[in-house]
Every structure is written in structure tokens, then in C-alpha cells.
């Protein structure tokens, strides 16, 4: 089993930055693709970004491309989401997720990684609030 714990959420003014972390435990996730999703109140879960096992392939939702950066440190078993130029509409609970090495995103991160159903493990989420 893989346990994922997100951290770094908080309250930030629009235009600001916020780094999120997702620490994995239970087993190494160096061979797992990882993703970030978010869910705002009353809305469906939304894909944010995904990264393949090595960090060499990344894919972003159009709403965050150019503002957010997903990265990973396999030695630390941790995935990051650097969020810049934040907007009030970025307010949501942010979740990280892990896709089993047998999954479709292990080698290449692309549109197929935006489907939350392919991920096998999820964290509990961290609240991000952007004030205008």
C-alpha cells in the first residue's frame, strides 16, 4: 500500500505563489506516475497536472499551464506542485494521486493521465484558498 500526504496549502492573495508537496510512504513511488487534482466546493474533481516516473514527461491542464509546475524527487519519495500567478478560481482542495507502474502514465504523461480513475492511491488533500 502507498500512503500519500499533501502539505503546503494555505491562504494566499491573488498573484501570489504557493508550493505544495506530496510525500509518499509505505513503498517507493519512484516507478509510479503521479498526478495532482483539485476539487472546489460544489464542483467535480478536476485534473491539474501529471508527471511520469522519471520526471521527464509532464502534462498540464490548460487552466494551469504556464503557471503551475509539477516535479518530483524520487530520492525523497515526494512530488511537488509549484503554483504561481494564483487566481481566486484556483481555490480548491488539492489532492495528489499515484498511478501503479503498470498504469498508462508511467512512461509518458499526456491527456490520458487526466482521468482520475486510472490512479490507484490518493491523499487526503490540502486546502488552497486564493483571496482577491
Provide a descriptive summary of the structure in words.
There is one protein chain. The chain is an all-beta fold. It has no helices and eleven strands. The chain has strands at residues 3-7, 10-13, 18-25, 33-39, 46-51, 58-60, 68-73, 78-83, 92-99, 121-122, 126-131. Strands 2, 4, 5, 6, 9, 10 and 11 form a seven-stranded mixed β-sheet that branches. It has a four-stranded antiparallel β-sheet with strand order 1-3-8-7, with no helix packed on it. The termini are far apart. The model has no long low-confidence stretch (mean pLDDT 97).
Whole-number mean pLDDT: 97
Give the overall form: globular
Order of helices and strands: EEEEEEEEEEE
Strand segment tally: 11
Could you give a short account of the major beta sheet? Answer: 7 strands, mixed
Portion in helices = under 10%
* Secondary-structure content class: mainly beta
Number of helices: 0
Strand portion: over 45%
* pLDDT < 50 stretches: none
Terminal residue distance: 40 Å
Radius of gyration: 13 Å
Amino acid at each position: 500500500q502507498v500512503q500519500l500526504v499533501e502539505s503546503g496549502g494555505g491562504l494566499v492573495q491573488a498573484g501570489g505563489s504557493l508550493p505544495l508537496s506530496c510525500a509518499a510512504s509505505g513503498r517507493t513511488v519512484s516507478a509510479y506516475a503521479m498526478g495532482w487534482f483539485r476539487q472546489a466546493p460544489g464542483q467535480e474533481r478536476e485534473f491539474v497536472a501529471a508527471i511520469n516516473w522519471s520526471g521527464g514527461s509532464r502534462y498540464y491542464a490548460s487552466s494551469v499551464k504556464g503557471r503551475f509546475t509539477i516535479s518530483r524527487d524520487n530520492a525523497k519519495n515526494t512530488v511537488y506542485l509549484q503554483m504561481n500567478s494564483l487566481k481566486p478560481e484556483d481555490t480548491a482542495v488539492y489532492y495528489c494521486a499515484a498511478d501503479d507502474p503498470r498504469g498508462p502514465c508511467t512512461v509518458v504523461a499526456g491527456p490520458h493521465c487526466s482521468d482520475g480513475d486510472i490512479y490507484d492511491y490518493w491523499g487526503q488533500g490540502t486546502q488552497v484558498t486564493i483571496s482577491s
